[in-house]
């Protein structure tokens, strides 16, 4: 099981590190001065996370319901990470907008796959 999911596990570990790291670590970067950059990062990370999950299991999905049920895994994972930020760190806080952007990234990956899937099946 770990061998089949190695990339999604790797991305989840990166997300855990980035979620629980000290906030001052990211302030020192400073070469990007984009408002709400963290929201774009949340969107991108969870889009990547869901995309990797889909690609690792693309041959296992037989209908849309299965993809949506699997998409609940990163949604709950993102919620747990936000609660962990509030409970286990002193420099980070939980934010409902972060959860919304996490979910938007996941939903975007699912929508793109649902659009692309018929073409994928023709190629096989």
Helix content percent band: over 70%
- Encode the helix/strand succession as letters: HHHHH
What is the count of DSSP helices, taking H or I runs of 4+ residues? 5
**What Rg do the Cα atoms give?**
16 Å
The pLDDT mean sits at 87
Q: Uncertain segments of ≥5 residues (pLDDT<50)?
A: none
* Largest beta-sheet details: none
The structural class is mainly alpha
- Tell me the strand percentage band: under 5%
Count every beta strand, where a strand is a DSSP E run of 2 or more residues: 0
What do these coordinates show?
Helix content is 75%, strand content 0%. It has 124 residues and is an all-alpha fold. α1 (6-20) runs antiparallel to α3 (37-56), α1 runs parallel beside α4 and α3 packs parallel to α5 (96-123). The radius of gyration is 16 Å and the shape is elongated.
Short key terms for the protein model shown above:
124 residues, mainly alpha, 5 helices, 75% helix
In short:
The chain has five helices and no strands. The protein is an all-alpha fold and 124 residues long.
Give the secondary structure arrangement, pairings included.
Layout: H1 6-20, H2 23-27, H3 37-56, H4 64-88, H5 96-123
Helix pairs in contact: 1-3, 1-4, 3-4, 3-5, 4-5
């Amino acid at each position: 099981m770990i061998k089949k999911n190695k990339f999604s596990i790797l991305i989840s570990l990166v997300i855990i590190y980035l979620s629980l790291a000290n906030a001052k670590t990211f302030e020192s970067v400073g070469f990007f001065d984009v408002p709400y950059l963290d929201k774009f990062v949340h969107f991108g990370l969870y889009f990547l996370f869901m995309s990797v999950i889909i690609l690792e299991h693309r041959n296992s999905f037989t209908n849309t319901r299965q993809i949506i049920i699997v998409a609940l895994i990163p949604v709950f994972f993102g919620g747990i990470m936000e609660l962990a930020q509030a409970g286990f760190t002193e420099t980070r806080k939980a934010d409902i907008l972060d959860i919304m952007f996490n979910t938007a990234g996941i939903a975007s990956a699912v929508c793109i796959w649902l659009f692309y899937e018929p073409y994928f099946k023709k190629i096989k």
